[in-house]
């Protein structure tokens, strides 16, 4: 369906019926006829919880921004091959032959890599000199020196934490006039860090890199900031499409870019909402040291922040910008929700259970899939067993027999 113009409320109604847009073109897959049915997926921004891997990612990016340390530093020459083993660039890696004894005769084996520095991440160590005598260990114990053993008249040493708990137990028992063994101390659970705690963590006075995120308006009413950064944005888009999706240079031109990610049928403006940002289509630009490295295309709707597309400079793929940008957009949704309670959800587009590149979307918790029959949102953990059996399935079990 070609849409010349749409209100944000109209497009939100379409979104909640399984529709998406690409530029001005709005579409909905015929799921029962598709080999890979596509289910709309959304995340509750208020109840969002970080997973362990997502916390590691945020720490990795924060460490790179503050210290400049790249992940897996020092292992650029060690790469896993298709079989899962490690292949080494022998031309650029320091090598030494290993001298081995076979039937009492010294033989030279092929050179293997070793590390000639103290890099903590290196996988290899230098071979020890075979002529160096090996220290022998014995099980004989030396007799203890008089006066150095434990004093039986004093209580045994314990951990400081256990001693503090015991003192607390004695104090509470004395206050309640009961036996200390009857006092039960419940451990205190530390407050779980939110996504804002990780993103707004302390930085040094002079960090190695500075990341700035700018929101610029796209669609029919392009902002001045968008015009001034158009060339940089198009260059990043072209690099991403050719590197990741193997597009030809001729397919990454200005016309294709504008029709795909710049044009939008959504009307801009507040339209009676409380959001500090206007509704409509926007580009969220990621600037690293005044260089554009990624752009997230989003739609701000009355109840949603909807992700349209993301493209980034492949040079910075070590920062896992796809997942990082999704976490940033969730934090942005939570920020809008603080001033406009109606904005509660972050929509990630379509989820395809049989596609490994799409399954990662379910790792954002809590996630919900749209039932293609009843158009109700169901927890993704309840939907996965059904989708494993049938790619196309009714997700809402309420009144399933009717």
Detailed description of the structure:
The chain is of the alpha+beta class and 402 residues long. The chain is 27% helix and 21% strand. The strands form four sheets. Strands 8-9-10-11-12-3-13-14 form an eight-stranded mixed beta sheet, sandwiched between helices. It has a two-stranded antiparallel ribbon with strand order 1-2. Strand 6 (95-102) and strand 7 (105-113) form a beta hairpin.
Radius of gyration: 30 Å
Number of strands: 14
Number of helices: 10
In helices, the fraction of residues equals 25-40%
Overall pLDDT, averaged? 83
**CA-CA gap between termini:** 32 Å
Strand count, sense and barrel status of the largest sheet are: 8 strands, mixed
Which structural category fits the helices and strands? alpha+beta
N-to-C series of helices and strands: HEEEHEEEEHHEHHHEEEHEHEEH
Beta-sheet strand percentage? 15-25%
Characteristics of this structure?
402 residues; alpha+beta; eight-stranded mixed β-sheet; two-stranded antiparallel sheet; extended
Per-chain topology:
Layout: H1 8-15, E1 20-22, E2 25-27, E3 39-44, H2 52-67, E4 78-80, E5 86-88, E6 95-102, E7 105-113, H3 160-176, H4 195-199, E8 211-217, H5 224-228, H6 230-244, H7 254-262, E9 280-288, E10 291-300, E11 304-312, H8 321-339, E12 345-351, H9 356-359, E13 367-370, E14 377-379, H10 380-389
């Amino acid at each position: 369906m070609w849409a010349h113009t749409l209100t944000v409320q109209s497009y939100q109604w379409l979104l909640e019926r399984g529709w998406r847009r690409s530029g001005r073109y709005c579409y909905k897959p015929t799921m029962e006829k598709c080999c890979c049915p596509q289910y709309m997926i959304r995340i509750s921004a208020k109840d969002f919880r970080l997973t362990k891997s997502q916390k590691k990612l945020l720490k990795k990016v924060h460490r790179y921004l503050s210290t400049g340390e790249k992940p897996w530093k020092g292992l650029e020459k060690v790469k896993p091959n298709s079989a899962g083993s490690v292949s080494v660039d022998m031309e650029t890696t320091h090598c030494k032959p290993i001298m081995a004894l076979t039937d009492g005769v010294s033989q030279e084996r092929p050179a293997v890599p070793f590390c000639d520095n103290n890099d903590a991440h290196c996988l290899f160590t230098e071979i020890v000199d075979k002529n160096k005598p090996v220290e022998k260990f014995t099980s004989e114990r030396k007799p203890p020196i008089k006066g150095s053993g434990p004093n039986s008249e004093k209580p045994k040493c314990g951990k400081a934490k256990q001693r503090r708990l015991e003192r607390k137990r004695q104090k509470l028992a004395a206050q309640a006039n009961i036996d200390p063994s009857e006092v039960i101390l419940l451990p205190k659970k530390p407050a779980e860090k939110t996504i804002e705690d990780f993103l707004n963590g302390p930085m040094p006075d002079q960090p190695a890199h500075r990341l700035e995120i700018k929101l610029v308006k796209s669609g029919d009413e392009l902002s001045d900031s968008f015009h001034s950064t158009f060339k940089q944005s198009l260059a990043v888009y072209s690099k991403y499409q050719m590197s990741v999706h193997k597009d030809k240079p001729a397919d990454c031109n200005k016309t294709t870019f504008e029709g795909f990610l710049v044009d939008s049928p959504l009307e801009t403006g507040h339209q009676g909402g409380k959001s500090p940002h206007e509704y409509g289509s926007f580009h969220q630009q990621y600037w690293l040291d005044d260089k554009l490295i990624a752009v997230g295309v989003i739609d701000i709707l009355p109840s949603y922040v909807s992700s349209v597309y993301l493209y980034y400079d492949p040079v910075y793929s070590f920062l896992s910008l796809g997942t990082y940008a999704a976490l940033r957009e969730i934090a942005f949704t939570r920020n809008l929700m603080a001033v406009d309670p109606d904005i509660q959800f972050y929509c990630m587009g379509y989820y395809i259970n049989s596609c490994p590149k799409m399954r990662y979307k379910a790792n954002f918790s809590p996630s919900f899939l749209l039932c293609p029959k009843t158009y109700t949102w169901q927890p993704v953990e309840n939907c996965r067993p059904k989708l494993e059996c049938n790619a196309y399935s009714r997700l809402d079990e309420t009144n399933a027999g009717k």
